[in-house]
Design brief:
Length: about 240
């Protein structure tokens, strides 16, 4: 058992997980990134203290169900695989706070994600998402959502009903119009660059915008009529007709 309760087997060209790893029952962090894995052994269930599991940059076409038995997981990296969906059993990971599912084959955000009540950060960029489920608004702990590189043709309406969001990234989509985001009290940053938009999203004072027209005032300023003080004085001195 490693002293730091961590095992990093990233970049080893592994096709299967060495079974002796599953005997480290106090393991807290397991990094298996950048291998050739497409399945995991059922013995992985023995790692009930695991809090961080990295499976990104592998060949998973489906999430192994054994992952959903690791109920202490807080961070799960699934990016850069070949996932088209997520199993309903993912709802068992009620301690999950960060989920990375970017660069997969998702055409819809799996609704099971909306059942992860403690989720704070969701990375779902570089998929083929066109919409977001309305149930997402139930994630009241969600603070950051990354949706860059998808197929969104409109700003997801559900995000307008999530006042606790702090970061919204919709860079590199197909959004043509942005509604006002000025009513979102928690918002700190919105990234909307590389969209064919006709306007910048209106935001509250102090909110940073990254994208076209981001340095301009959210509200177009009306040009005020300038009065020459000399002309005004002369006008006041003339007798009334």
């Amino acid at each position: 058992m490693p002293v730091d309760k961590m095992v990093d087997l990233s970049g080893r060209q592994l096709r299967r997980l060495p079974l002796h790893i599953c005997s480290f029952r106090e393991l807290v962090k397991l990094y298996l990134s950048d291998n050739n894995l497409n399945h995991l052994p059922p013995e992985l269930e023995q790692l009930q203290n695991l809090q961080i599991l990295a499976l990104d940059f592998n060949n998973f076409k489906a999430l192994p169900l054994v992952v959903c038995t690791l109920k202490q997981l807080c961070i799960l990296y699934l990016g850069n695989n070949k996932l088209c969906s997520l199993p309903l059993e993912l709802r068992l990971l009620q301690n999950l706070k960060t989920l990375w599912i970017e660069s997969n084959c998702l055409q819809h955000l799996p609704e099971v994600v909306c059942e992860l009540s403690l989720l704070k950060t969701l990375h779902a960029g570089s998929n083929a998402l066109r919409t977001l489920p309305a149930q997402l608004r139930g994630l009241q702990e969600l603070r950051t959502i990354w949706l860059s590189g998808n197929l969104l043709s409109e700003f997801p309406p559900v995000l307008l009903h999530m006042p606790f969001l702090e970061v919204i990234d919709v860079d590199r989509n197909a959004i043509r119009f942005f509604p006002s985001l000025a009513h979102l009290p928690g918002l700190k940053l919105v990234i909307y660059d590389h969209n064919p938009c006709r306007n910048a999203p209106k935001v509250a004072k102090g909110v940073r915008r990254v994208g076209r027209w981001s340095e301009e005032s959210p509200e177009p300023r009306k040009r005020e009529k300038q009065i020459n003080p000399v002309t005004e004085a002369l006008s006041n001195s003339l007798p009334s007709p």
